[in-house]
Amino acid sequence: MQQFSNVEIAEIKSRIDQIQEMLATGHSAQVPAVSQQDRIDAPVPGLIEQLNFSLQMRRTRKAHFGSAQLTGPTWDMMLDLMLAKTNGRELSASDLATGAGVPLSSGLRMIALLEQLDLAERYIDERDRRRSIVRLTDNGVDSMTRYFEKIGQAWSGRQRYAA
Asked: What is the pLDDT at residue 24?
């Protein structure tokens, strides 16, 4: 794995901050010119639009949930829980950890975080008392529903703009 110096990290952070400011204000910021050899042609049709939409989704999620902790495996758990709720299924804590690709001990910490945020709750499985079932709380379902409504609106707006 490549290691970066503190100077390189500071330069990358500065560049990211410039891009975020530019996107937030809709104005072109004073961004250093990129030489033609540093640019790549979009290998996938619509790549730029997909990247912009992906960034918009992440920012919307952070603003909507008010927590930078809903990323990576923890976000995967939220998606799995919402999908399970939508399909009338139940997921155990170990199902969630496996689905998120983390060890059970890490998964349990992530589930505890979701409980603290009042997004999920654990129950003892009545059929197998060694297992705990995890479900979204009413607040969790409502938050996920409202989030996906926002994303749907953003997607629809993007589609109209692209047409």
From this structure: 66
